[in-house]
Write a structure and sequence with these properties.
- The chain is of the alpha/beta class.
- It has seven helices and seven strands.
Length: about 240
Amino acid sequence: MEDFSDQVVVVTGAAGALGGALAGAFRQAGANLVLVDIDDQKLRDRYPQAAEPGSTMMTAECDLSDPGAVNGLRDRIRERWGRVDVLANIAGGFRAGQPVHETDPETWHFMLDLNATSAFLTSRALIPMMLEQSAGKIINVAARPGLKAGAGNAAYAAAKSAVIRLTESLASELRHHGINVNAVMPGTMDTPGNRVSMPEADSSKWVQLQAVTDVILFLASDRARAIHGAIIPVLGLT
């Protein structure tokens, strides 16, 4: 197992399935955790131990599409720990099914904000702390439609394409400052939400959450120190 003792790890989307699994993996590896989500109640319900005195976990409600809110999150992290070693931009989501001429602007902007703007703003806010220490890891979440879009998913595909390009740009900008930026590209993940929304699908072919978290922990570790700008497929049998 990777060892993240004394490191400060920020996980966005921490109330969701992948974010929650990742938070648990980092906690087992000894990290101090900043657990971020837009739903404060879900955070409190999932991580009650964060409210205990001396906890190595901090929950933070934050709208990651709001620059002011993200800057406030940065200030809280700096006040509590003074550093960020790992940023896992897990917040994201999927909405599709309509052709472009029937897609409303709200869906377009929602997909971009949820998947791409969130990663952009959080990275923008926290990178200066990584630059101060000349070290850090950023891991984003891409998706196959970001490489090639299909019918009915233009907004989601555009958002995930933006995540890929953001990852590549950040990697080029930061690689000489001791900071690694990479992304995972999961296939359909075996989550309760996906089982409900796709009851007829063969879930045995879906990628397990632990398989995705294993790759993210590797990318967050020193063993990935020579990897910059990679988009790593974690597809299971999909």
